[in-house]
Amino acid sequence: MRDLEPGLDAEEIGSKMSDFVAELFPLCRSITGDGIRETFHRIGKRIPLDVHEVSSGTRVFDWTVPKEWNIRQAYINDPDGRRIVDFRDHNLHVVGYSTPIEARMPLSQLKEHIHTLPEQPHLIPYRTSYYAEGWGFCMEDERLSQLQEGEYEVRIDSSLEPGSLTYAECFLAGDTDDEILISCHCCHPSMANDNLSGIALATQLADHLRGLRLRYSYRFLFIPGTIGSITWLAGNEERVKRIKAGLVAVCVGDRGHPTYKRSRQGNALIDRAAAHVLKHSGQPHRIVDFSPYGYDERQYCSPGFDLAVGSLSRTPHNEYAEYHTSADDLGLVRPECLADSFGLYLSVIDVLENDERYLNLVPKGEPQLGRRGLYPPIGAQGVGAELMARLWLLNLSDGQHSLLDVADRSGLPFRDIKEAARVLSESGVLASAPDGGNTR
Ligand code: ZN
Question: Is residue 15 packed enough to be buried (19+ CB in 10 Å), middle (13-18) or exposed (0-12)?
Fold first, then answer.
């Protein structure tokens, strides 16, 4: 029986995660380059981290690791020499992977390279051009519409050259080689919910779990989206077989209610564990089916792998107005929401860690709980959850049903059934089933 919450302080956890989001916010990350490297350097100060470099041009399944992109500065000056867009003000102003340019051009030509959000005129959009070389700027539509005709000066001081893709992993060895995967993408520049909240959650979770004795081994992947998970999968095909369950951590800091997106398998242990935890979380939530769009679950759940990996988030990425804009800022991510998400992840992991099958050692008739001090007095409210958890567990502990099965069938929270298993085992009426580990 494993207790994952010794001395847990939700407020402290929330403020630690929130501080880390704020620390990482200014860095200009991309799928390669020094911004993502510096992000890994900061994560590495909090948890043990192996950082890997994979050369540009490396074939990874149907993809190729791209050139490495770095940027130093970028700006647009208007015909009067006034700086109207500056990368230093906000790194979303430059389209990710923009090739270098230094030129003068009329407004009409410049506009072909400027992206705005006419329906959210006060926000800067987030745009990238990873796999089609080009350059561009992003700005507020309300400012673009005010620009005067004339010749503009444009400069992007960037480099797009052979280099490498960087990813990082934190591995925590457990009692078995079977692994639980926690994956988050780290390739977005200054946006807080997508993707810094996921990075902060994965880092905090790794930091918390590394002090505990665990049944499973845990692999935390910090990767650029899509190309990073494909690169990891391509380099670790043998290891992939050990992954028994996983979660993609993304958009976990906003005020929205939790959402779980099922794995492609749909009814894997991770799907059941997440659904169970949300049902008993005491808050509104949604469970949505797998679809081949979203984040790195697309790769983990591709048919060649079909891993039991779902995604536990708050508001799904395409459903909040601030998504992929400058409004996904530090105000959108709340410490208490980060802490709540952390608690949900820990509860799911608690189910995975403790979901075992037990045997009722007194299966003929009910064991006489009263003489063992295990039959609480039945008060005016009727039979309490404590007794029902014990009775359900004894009844279903025939070696076929795991604690999660018992919890789901009884309608009681997993933690109650787990506590009943502890008490009944101590009193000698229940024991772990031989080969009782549940990794279905
Ligand atoms: Zn995104």
Answer: middle
Distance in Å, CA 296 to ligand 1 centroid: 11
Cα of 289 from ligand 1 centre, angstroms: 20
pTM for this model (two decimals): 0.96
Q: How are beta strands 286-288 and 259-261 bridged, if at all? A: parallel
Tokens in use for 139?
């700005």
Which chain residues have CB less than 5 Å from ligand 1, an ion?
Answer: 194
Helix (H, G, I), strand (E, B) or coil at 234: helix
Rounded distance from Cα 250 to ligand 1 centre (Å) = 9
Which two structure tokens, joined as six digits, stand for 121?
A: 């005129």
Give the Å distance between the CA of 344 and the centre of ligand 1.
22
Fold of 357-437: Arc Repressor Mutant, subunit A (1.10.10)
311 alpha carbon to ligand 1 midpoint, in Å?
14
Q: Is the pLDDT of residue 380 over 90?
A: no
Q: Where are the domains of the chain?
A: 10-66+164-354, 68-161, 357-437
- pLDDT at res. 348: 98
How many A from CA of 251 to the centre of ligand 1?
A: 9
247 CA → ligand 1 middle, Å: 16
Specify the pLDDT at position 390.
Answer: 97
CATH number, domain 68-161: 3.50.30.90
3-state secondary structure labels for all residues of 70-113: EEEEEEEECCCCCEEEECCCCHHHECECECCEEEEEEHHHHHCC
Instruction: Give me ligand 1 centre to Cα 224, in Å.
Output: 10
Q: State in Å: Cα 188 to ligand 1 middle.
A: 7
Report the separation in Å between the CA atom of 195 and the middle of ligand 1, taken as the mean of its atom positions: 6
Distances (CA, A) of 190 to 24, 109, 197: 8, 28, 12
The confidence score (pLDDT) of residue 234 equals 98
Place of tokens 């980060």: 338
pLDDT at 437 (0 to 100): 61
